[in-house]
Amino acid sequence: MSSRFVRLLTCSAAFLCSGATDSSGQPAHFAQPREGAALVDPLLLPLHTKGRYIVNVDNERVKWACINWAGAYSKTAVVGGLEVQKLDGLAARISSLGFNCVRLCYSTQNHLENPLVKDEEVAANPELRGKRFMEIFDQTVTALTRHGLMVIINNHISSSGWCCNVKQDEGFWYTPKYSEEMWIESLVRMATHFRNNSLVVAYDIRNEPHDIPGRHMTWGDGNPATDWAAAATRGGNAVLAANPNVLIVVSALCFCMDLRPVKHHVVKFDVPNRLVYETHNYIEFQMATLVSNNFVSWAWMKSICINISIVLALVQLLTQYIWSRLSRPWPRKSTLLASLAGWACIVLAASAGIFFYAYNFYLAYCSFVAINYFLSYAILCVVLAVASFLLTLWAGFIGLRISTRQDCAIVPEVCPTSAECGS
């Protein structure tokens, strides 16, 4: 996962870990005053959700303030930084900076194959030399929990390497090389391995699901090959069967940016009150956010558009009033209608072009938004533009054949006879 994302999860957690305790029986690091996010109380486990929040056993809300620790999903098969810093020192540094949890990422390949980690990748930690992925991953979790930090284990990618690119086949929870069964097997093995460490509070079962070339991801349609909501349910239930006391974090569609499908289809697990939704805020991919962050807010633009419409309407009424007071003849109704419909056709055609451009732009990585929003708006604008064009033709050509006394006074040549003009 890219380091650029801003996590929008609002969650809570608690921990239980070994180590020195104070006179109250709590871990010493928990009792010590600190700046930043509060560490969680080990006596208030397990966690569950209540409404939009995650709460402890006393239904008190606790927030996550997490750092994302990359590396264990890459070809190095180990978290970054161990070549220059001691593992325990890095864990202590994370806590001293005010964080209270770590999103610890791994790849399905590294977990299932458990490769030997090169000595140069852990050069500053000689005790880790000659060890394999899972041994170092386990010691990383132990170091983090020893300092009172919660751990969210994240299945980041299938094949070890970097992510995330719309042209990769890693957008789904499975790939041609690593099946859904292997993905679930990895999650279950992780949940089983760490079920006695209650500070491992959650499993983020897949990072940033998204479309891949030739296949669009869906939500709630029941297609086993594309329905991420259904796959998340299967994966989450498997983890909860191994450890019912953890939280299951489900990423939104479109690189974890769009949760709107949840309004129509929610994820439900066999164990209630364990679901946490996750979104990432990639500002560079959100044109609407770019406008509001760099120029003006959408609320301001809405207000301005309403005010401009009111002013233009008043100007139009005033112009009509002055025209009538000057006893000037009115344009034919068909002419006014043709003009209005013509301008509407131009505006609607331009809007359709913009929506079709947005549709093609979003289709590369977010077909849900492209199809359900931009394509729908584009089709609507096309239909209205065609209707306006036909109305323009009718008013401009067929409407010329309609004769009225007012039409004769303004445009006498439309009247077949001079008698009709005077009638």
What would you note in describing this structure?
The protein has 423 residues and is an alpha/beta fold. The protein is 41% helix and 9% strand. It has helices at residues 28-31, 87-96, 108-113, 133-146, 180-193, 228-242, 253-256, 287-294, 298-325, 333-363, 367-396, 405-410, 418-422, and strands spanning 48-50, 53-55, 66-69, 101-107, 150-157, 200-204, 247-251, 275-278. The strands form 2 sheets. It has a 6-stranded parallel beta sheet. A two-stranded antiparallel sheet has the order 1-2. Helix 2 (87-96) links the parallel strand 3 (66-69) and strand 4. Helix 5 (180-193) runs parallel beside helix 6 (228-242) and helix 10 (333-363) packs antiparallel against helix 11. The longest helix has 31 residues, at 333-363. It is elongated. 35% of the residues are buried. Residues 1-26 and 419-423 have low confidence and may be disordered.
N→C terminal distance:
81 Å
Number of strands: 8
Instruction: Tell me, briefly, the overall form.
Output: elongated
- What fraction of residues sit in β-strands? 5-15%
Please give the share of residues in helix: 40-55%
